[in-house]
Amino acid sequence: LTQHQTREREAMAQYGVATAATKLDCVQIDGLVVLKIMKHCRDEMISNQLVSGQLLGMDITFASTTTLEVTSCFPMPHTGEDDNAEDTDIYVTEMLRCMRDVNVDNNTVGWYQSTFMNSWLEPDSPTIATQYQFQDQVPKSVCLVYDPVRTSSGSVYLKAYRLTDKFMAKYKLHLDNNQHGFTEADLKPKFRDDYSGKILEEGISTDEIFEEVPIRIHNSHLVSAMLYDWVCEGTMGANMDCDFERLDLSSRPFLDKSMELLVEGVEALRTDQDRAEFKKRDAERKRRDFKRSARGDETSREDLLRMFPDPSRLEGLLIAHQVEKYCDDISKFTGQSFSKLYLAKGMQEGNNN
Question: Comparing C-alpha atoms, which of 266, 270, 254 is closest to residue 332?
Answer without folding.
Answer: 254
